[in-house]
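TA notes, week 10

Several of you asked for a full example with nothing omitted. So below is the full record: structure tokens for the whole chain, then the designed sequence directly under it. When grading your own attempts, check the secondary structure regions first.
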């Protein structure tokens, strides 16, 4: 999604709403729709981020229709700055991904982070923490050993996120979060 490379610390909400889609027809056809929202309010003391993503897709080949995407995810995170480079956070997400057999997944987490880069054109944060995850599946999974319709438990988390302003009109924002031991 499009965003400012560096979060503006003016205690005002800044954000983006992006919507896209495509429809193709011919001997085969497909439909895709996606929407993202990302809003942040930051000051020199703390930051609140609220986000949501929706993705839907379907295709028809030889008069056989099938869904290719059906994802919804929403969540938020609160960061409190202990120093200019060290912060603590708490957050959570709610997700549904029917094609991956996930009826609902709730994650709650908290931890600490370090601002490795914090400039007008780039930011890069590293963070780690602990949390809780609960996943309800639509049907029993066939993973060996077979899992029930619900899994839950504590998790570790390690992550990084960065934002890089390439020009006045182009910014790249990415995030990678790993939950070791969680399937």
């Amino acid at each position: 999604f499009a965003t400012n490379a560096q979060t503006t610390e003016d205690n005002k909400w800044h954000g983006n709403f992006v919507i896209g889609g495509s429809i193709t027809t011919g001997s085969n056809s497909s439909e895709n729709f996606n929407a993202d929202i990302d809003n942040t309010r930051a000051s020199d003391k703390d930051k609140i981020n609220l986000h949501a993503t929706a993705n839907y897709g379907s295709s028809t080949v030889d008069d056989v229709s099938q869904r290719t995407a059906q994802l919804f995810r929403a969540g938020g995170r609160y960061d409190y700055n202990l120093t200019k480079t060290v912060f603590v956070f708490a957050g959570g997400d709610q997700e549904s991904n029917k094609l991956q057999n996930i009826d609902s997944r709730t994650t709650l987490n908290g931890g600490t982070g370090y601002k490795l880069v914090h400039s007008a054109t780039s930011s890069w944060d590293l963070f780690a923490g602990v949390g809780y995850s609960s996943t309800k599946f639509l049907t029993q999974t066939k993973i060996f050993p077979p899992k029930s319709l619900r899994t839950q438990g504590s998790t570790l988390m390690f992550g990084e996120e960065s934002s890089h302003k390439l020009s006045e009109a182009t910014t790249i924002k990415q995030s990678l979060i790993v939950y070791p031991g969680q399937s």
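DSSP finds no helices and nine strands in the chain. Use that as a sanity check on your answer.
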